[in-house]
Design goal:
Length: 80
């Protein structure tokens, strides 16, 4: 029973990995506890969004991911 967590863009550089697997079910608090403190601080910022199963959550703190689901951690996008 696991949840796949994807770290996109600069978050993967900060964490030094693009993905990890965590036990299901997974809450927002459990996610923050599972990553290094520096990553957890970034994730709590207003500009980081969370998608579960391809849908961006309006309130990332309400995250509850079940077995087999995929979570994507989305940093701000810039471009020109």
């Amino acid at each position: 029973m696991a949840v796949k967590v994807l770290f996109l863009g600069p978050l993967s550089d900060l964490f030094d990995t693009a993905e990890m697997s965590l036990p299901a079910p997974l809450s927002w608090g459990q996610l923050l506890e599972a990553v290094p403190r520096t990553v957890a601080e970034q994730l709590q910022g207003e500009r980081i969004h969370v998608a579960c199963q391809g849908h961006v959550l309006p309130d990332k703190t309400a995250l509850v991911a079940l077995d087999g689901q995929e979570i994507a951690l989305l940093p701000p996008v810039s471009g020109g």
